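Much of our argument rests on the idea that a fold can be written as discrete symbols. This step matters because it turns folding into a mapping between discrete strings. The record that follows shows the chain in one-letter code together with its fold in token form.
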Amino acid sequence: MDRRTWAGLALAAMVLALPGCRSAGTASDRSGGGYEEGAGGIAGSGSGQGGMGAGGMADVSASTLPGGVVPGSQQDLAQTVGDRIYFGTDRFDLTPEAQAILDRQADWLRRYPNVVVSIEGHADERGTREYNLALGDRRALTVRNYLVARGVADLRVTSVSFGKERPEATGADEQAWSRNRRAVTTVQ
């Protein structure tokens, strides 16, 4: 074979191998399972752009807010605007309270244009694993779509469903279930 044939074969092999690559440390890697979806399909399948710095950390200011909170960090998001919303039983529609929190999140994300987030959809323990993964996915996608509709670039927001696999509260009562029916916005 001549040199051009070898170069073409090498290029074809790289193109075929590339979709199988995945960035380390995604939410599903840490959980041992979960269904992820983003603007391009699978979370972590971007071109390396979108506000990620060295080591996969979001680029944020080196200064800190009162209390030692780094601007643009998960702690900043949680403390200043809230990082989670809650849903009714078997529901994935947004309440007025949830919309208000998401409006604040969209404003916060516009303030920090280099921050990339993942929306985690969760469900309570009732129902099958498959049903709760699907419900968590609908919840996460509802939040993702709301943020994108409010002006956040779709490449900056991915979604993942954990179903009932990561409860916030333990217990088999309405108080615990209501805390587990949620979507959490996490800074990547």
Observations:
- The chain has a mean pLDDT of 77.
